[in-house]
Amino acid sequence: MKAGRTASLVLLSVTTTFIVALEACLSFVKPLSAMSETMHLVVIGAVTCAGMSLLLIPAGIALDRSMARLRQYVERTTQDESDSAYYGPRWLQPITQSLLSAIEQFRTRERTLRNQIRDLEIRHRVTEVEQQQIKAVLNSLSDGVIVTDPFNEIVMANETAAEALQFALDGSIHQPIEVVIGDERIRQLISERRDSSNFSDHHVIDHEVAVGEGDARHVKMYDIALSCVENHKKEVGGVVTILHDRTRERELAQRETDFVSKASHELRTPLSSIRAYVEMLVDGEASDEKSRDEFYRIIQAETDRLGRLIDNMLNISRIEAGIVQIDRQQVDMKSLIKRAAETIEPQAREKDMTVLTKLAPVGLTVEGDPDMLYQVILNLLSNAVKYTPESGRVTISADSDNLTRSVLVSVADTGLGIPPDALPRLFEKFYRVENYKRVAKGTGLGLSLCKHIVETVHYGQIGIESKLGMGSRFWFSVPMRYAGVQEAA
Q: Are 400 and 391 in contact (CB under 8 A)?
């Protein structure tokens, strides 16, 4: 800049000197030529313009060339740091040095910013990967997880929590819990935990959450654990809420309690009967041989009943635990049905009942355990005979279903039928229709065992069709080929 001002002042001085010299010459020439004043001014202007042109045009061309060289040098230097040689007028060197210093500062700043941007990009990618990993871990958990910030806004949540508390996961992030979570008790617990600022204590409570609407509405039990997390300032950075579903555990515990209670009751009944008749025998109340024989038969019957009850409970427990020993082989269902019908014939004859068999002429062979399948057929036939009045009829039929590649067996009777409200519970453990307990004795485990053998062991299906007062039809189907092999394949 200083060199530019100096050049301008020199050019202005030269121009002024030229004009003064020209004026002096004209003043000397004026008396001789007797020029007019107007002509004098015109001549001065013309000469001045000519002189200025002769001076300024070469100077402008030289300045333009110098500036072009400077521009090329700056561009070359910007692209290549190693090229720093400059060939041009000396008076432009200060400007060049200033530009070079500014370019170097710019380059240094650019390199710093590029490094910072690269670091930020790397951190951003690492953060994204970590967030994806955290989300994958959270979504793989069976427990619901909700993470909130100090303002009670949701920072992170998994699908289990969204399903449990019935909110949309995508629209919940960075939203207040008052907007997302509908359960007032959970909102209150999160707020109280945040305000407590207690990092060492992990608060756990039991809480019931209503799920669904209308007829599908039901209650689930949760263990809710809440803990504060601290930020870099050792302050409350948010609250982590974990929801552990205890509904299934509570149901299993309740079922276990019910099972023990019902089993104890069923076991007590034959034991009490056996004890009573044994005491009468010991006390000598059976004085004649006929009475003693009757007592012995009752004791034997109750003992058999007790043995069947224990066997059924053990078999069901083994099947549910997956430790039952299964002897899989090719089983001819026709031979099992004929054998079961012959076994039940004396019991049916005592009630003047007819047992009919209708077997399809095709092959009825399945892959399974023959003893277990025989037990299913015999249990269904025995129930049909027990709950059918005298002179009734029981029909057992079997046929193949080519569509499902299975054998279908059904046992139909002309008995009492089953009330509609009892049908859904008929295969539960120890369940018996209340009005039919006087009709025949039973443990309430036979149908439950049949269901486990057919569905759990043989991957088949079992069901019932019945109308009150018009008899019942129990049926079950077993795949011709072991279904477990197909699922594993």
A: no
Let me know: does 226 contact 241? Beta carbons within 8 Å.
Answer: yes
| Rg (alpha carbons) of the chain, rounded to whole number | 52
Helix, coil or strand: residue 285: coil
Distance CA 360, CA 407 (A): 10
* Measured distance CA(31)–CA(42) in Å, rounded: 17
- In angstroms, rounded to a whole number, what is the distance separating the alpha carbons of residues 260 and 217? 30
> Is residue 211 pLDDT above 60, yes or no?
yes
Q: What is the rounded CA–CA span in Å between residue 371 and residue 336? A: 9
Asked if residue 163 lies in contact with residue 145, where contact means CB atoms within 8 angstroms, the answer is no
For residues 405-420, one letter each, b for 16 or more C-beta atoms within 10 angstroms of the residue's C-beta and e for the rest, the string is ebbbbbbbbbbbebee
CA distance 28 to 35: 11
Chain centre to alpha carbon of residue 189: 24
- Say yes or no to pLDDT of 464 above 50: yes
Residue 331's nearest CA partner among 382, 359, 379, 372 is 372
Q: What are phi and psi of 207, to 5 degrees?
A: -150, 140
Greatest mean pLDDT among 27-31, 99-103, 120-124, 217-221 lies in 120-124
Mapped onto helix, strand or coil, the DSSP state of residue 236 is strand
CB 242 within 8 A of CB 158: no
- What is the reported pLDDT for 169? 83
**How would residue 442 be classed by pLDDT, with cut points 50, 70 and 90?**
low
Cα separation, 451 vs 113, whole angstroms:
73
Q: pLDDT tens digits, residue range 366-406?
A: 999 898 899 899 989 988 998 888 888 999 999 998 888 89
pLDDT tens digit string along 295-337? Answer: 888 888 788 878 877 877 777 777 777 777 788 899 999 999 9
- Give me the count of residues in the chain: 489
* Whole-Å CA distances, 303 to 183, 277, 278, 468: 55, 12, 12, 33
The DSSP secondary structure of 91-120, one letter per residue, reads GGHHHHHHHHHHHHHHHHHHHHHHHHHHHH
Greatest Cα pair distance in the chain:
188
For 28-70, the pLDDT digits (tens) are 554 544 456 666 666 666 666 666 666 666 666 666 666 666 6
DSSP assignment of 358-388 equals: EE-SS--EEEE-HHHHHHHHHHHHHHHHHTS
Q: Are 374 and 341 in contact (CB under 8 A)?
A: no
Which pTM was predicted? 0.53
